[in-house]
Amino acid sequence: MAAAGAPPYMTEAILLMAATVVAVPLSKRLGLGSVIGYLAAGIAVGPSALGLFTSGERVLGFAEIGVVLLLFVIGLELDPKKLWRMRRDIFLLGGAQVLVTGFALYLFGLAIGIDPNVSLVGGFGLALSSTAFAVQILQERGQLTTPYGQRAFGILLFQDIAIVPLLAMVAVLAPDDGSGVSHDFLYQAGLTISAIGTVVVAGRYLASPLFSLLAVSRAREIMLAAALLVALGSAALMHLVGLSMALGAFLAGVLLAESSFRHTLEADIEPFRSLLMGLFFVAVGMTFDLGVLVSNLGVVIGGVVLVMSVKGLFLWGLARLTGSSNQDALRIAVTLPQGGEFAFVLFTAAVGNAVLPYEVSNILSSIVMLTMVMTPIACLALDWIAERLKARGVENPAIETFDEATPTVLVVGFGRFGMTVAQILTSEGLEVRALDNRPDRIAYARKLGYKVYYGDATRPDVLAAAGAGKAALIALCIENDKVMMQSIDLIREGFPGVLLFCRATDRAHALELTRKGVDYQIRETFESSLAFGRAALEQLGIPQDRISQIEEDVRRRDKERLDIQMQEGLYAGVDRLHGVTPRSNAPDNA
């Protein structure tokens, strides 16, 4: 209960933050990862332990927004072409995993005398893994973009889709009340197709123009509100027709993956996503019923061992059959053996349709939550075994391939200067990503075939989302000297290993950049001025060898003057300039 006069939920918010601030750093210090810390915090403040919260259901309902935003951000990183390339992992590997694991657990339930309907719902519910847990583990380890990480994510995607037919299965298994289902089925199918079509059309044709319009205002909070509107609106629409909210947000993210606002959207949503994901894991911990665990300890522990063993074995075998190395197959097996959040949805629906007894649902939910707790520990165990084998010389490292195999250059500022720089780099086959904060310039560059994204160079989160941490070189081609200086400081602090090349607007700016210690700088008009003067001399009939001497002399004098100005100030080194000198006074071979 909140104190008198305090805003609603103030006390609850403080308790949750205090619990996580203590538990998460401690868990990470012990090498268990942040997920275990969040779960432990939830169990501690939940009704089964300290009882500071009477129920985690209310918090869990709100915290599921974190899963929605997680899938939206992941969708932003997967354009439709990449998603199409993953179709084999999604439908073949993911489909086989759900079917084989669910059917095996169903047969086991029948073998020990459990009702067929209960076995069917329980088996296929436990076959689903946790998208939130698995993706969080992969992201913490920096392995989401590795081959095994992408295959694991493909399996999770299919499981998110599979919840729809599984919920339909529960409706079919419900006791017959005498009403027909054919009309309801057709109606639901029509709603589903309409909802997906609406998300596709809105994401493909309406979202980008909306963000372009809002970007002109330069109001960051409005862009953030629009990003949340797209993610949550797509999720809510899918939820209205009985589909997964996370799947709706993921679809919206995929449709915006090729948008020029992709990196800014990702950076804006990331803090909310991280906070709400943590709250989701806390809420899962709060719903953990220690009383059910104690009363049915043998059944729950046996169920955990069975589920993790069966899922792990089938995941490893299917991954090997579909082309994964032994090492990658093992990693997939220990990342996805847990039950998932959609199992709670399925079990709740089954209880509501009188397919699953309430007591059995509680036991199954306890099994799911305990498998979640055990998954990070299983990952740590695999790492420990791998280290021991490596120390003994028994090592079989997989050769990992990445989409970003070529050196990446991040071009910030895509005007005339930046576009010319990009032409030079792309001609050598280098991957170039570009940021700019002017929607009109982005639209023009995209019409020419360049991938340019909307972003602010003074925001480290936007630079990170655009790939500054993975870039071999960052080319700052910004016209605004003040913005460039702020960006240089951020890059040097956040991405110290990257090469930094800068466009200088004038001589004073070039001196300032040199003092900043950038790896390379050039005045934007210097080379064009030399080329202009060279062409003028050619037209005036000066011999080519003499023109080359003159150009070399001007370059040498310019460098000497810059060195003097670095020591004595902007107006020093005037004696290095050529005055209005008659041609006859020019030194021989100067």
Strand order, largest beta sheet: 3-2-1-4-5-6
CATH class of the largest domain: Mainly Alpha
Binned strand content = under 5%
Uncertain segments: 394-406, 580-590
CATH fold description of the largest domain: Na+/H+ antiporter like fold
Number of helices: 24
Q: What helical percentage do the residues reach? A: 55-70%
Domain RCK N-terminal: 406-522
GO biological process, one term: proton transmembrane transport
Protein name: Kef-type potassium/proton antiporter, CPA2 family
Membrane topology: Multi-pass membrane protein
Key features of this structure:
six-stranded parallel sheet, 24 helices, mainly alpha, Rossmann fold, single chain, elongated, 3 domains, 590 residues, Na+/H+ antiporter like fold
